[in-house]
Amino acid sequence: MKIRIDTRTLTPDGFGIEVSGFDMSQSDDQSGQVLTQAFLDHGGLLVLRDQTLETPNDLCQFTALFGEVEHNEKYDPRYLLPDYPEILRIGNTMENGQYNALFIRADPSPLLWHCDDSFRHPQPMGSCLYCVQAPPSGGETGFAGMAAAYEGLSETMKSRIDGLVTIHSYDHLNKLLRRRNPHRPPLSDALKQEHPPIRRPLVACHPVTQRKSLYLPLCHIEGIEGMAATEGDALLEELQAHAVQERYTYFQHWQPGDLVLWDNRCTLHAPTPFDDENYSRLMYRLTVTGPQISAA
Ligand code: OGA
Ligand code: MN
Q: Domain range holding 44?
């Protein structure tokens, strides 16, 4: 049977696609191929709405269309959905006076634009968020298309950044997050050893589409190799300001049942703040493995 879906692009430049007429319970090889193509053709951002979970396993089967579903070894087991090590709870929900979800309190500015786990190799190819509970306002997620952002740079800037290498570090990120999130513990020695700082290209080549993109999760980046911190930081900030302009971004205003999948190799995303003292937000997150970026 041929699957019939309707689609709508999410930004004028064609970054992001919303698919309707597809139900997660229809996940099979054929729908996997159609959705993967739509995802790749639109810069790695796919939005589905009104998805109901018969069981959390529906979510595992859906994400498995795109790659092998990862487990969440580096997270506190309290944050995982019981019986589903693939599913990480993200949000501010509590159990016995403690968060039972990974809670990141965001600042309104600057937003924490990042791709997931660029400080480990291999990094997850894609991540998916499913909305269980959303606050009435705020708590959105912004997405930015890094291939379009790269293509929008001046030729002078493209040649200036060509071949530059950045250092990505989990510990750097954790220290930065702890400023606003004192509930977050320092990184354990074991995690530090498992995730030493790594070198990453500033301009990445996508392994499937071969499109070049800015690879710029600023909050993971300690600096540019071989460049003084003041010069490096100024350059990275200038690039980020360019990359997250309105024309390259889409913000998801979450409703329960929304499902978004993104490509960590060529997009950035960022949570926006919400009134976490008065409202609950709960998302289920899954990540999948896949081919890795190379230096462009
Ligand atoms: C994530 C993430 C953003 C959000 O789950 O990796 O960055 O809005 N989430 O919850
Ligand atoms: Mn993330």
A: 6-290
Segments in 195-248 forming alpha helices (H): 229-243
Q: How many Cβ atoms from other residues are within 10 Å of residue 227's Cβ?
A: 16
* Residue closest by Cα to atom 6 of ligand 1: 116
- DSSP β-ladder status, 17-20 and 45-48: parallel
Stated as kind and residue range, the H or E segment containing 176 is: helix 170-180
Nearest to 74 by CA among 9, 112, 119: 119
Q: What is the pTM of this model?
A: 0.97
The tokens for 261 are 């999948």
Specify the residue with its C-alpha closest to ligand 1, atom 5: 285
For residue 296, being part of any structural domain is answered with no
Whichever domain contains 210, its CATH number is 3.60.130.10
170 part of a folded domain = yes
- 36, amino acid identity: T
Query: Does 2 score more than 80 pLDDT?
Result: no
Q: 3-state class of 165 per DSSP?
A: strand
**Residue nearest atom 9 of ligand 1, based on CA coordinates:** 271
95 CA → ligand 2 middle, Å:
23
Kindly list the protein residues whose Cβ atom lies closer than 6 A to any atom of ligand 1. Answer: 90, 116, 127, 129, 141, 269, 271, 283, 285
pLDDT in tens, 256-289: 999 999 999 999 999 999 999 999 999 999 999 9
Q: Which ligand 1 atom is nearest residue 283's CA?
A: 10
Q: Give the whole-angstrom CA distance, residue 20 versus residue 50.
A: 9
Domain count, the chain: 1
Q: Are 124 and 116 in contact (CB under 8 A)?
A: yes
Residue 295 lies in a domain: no
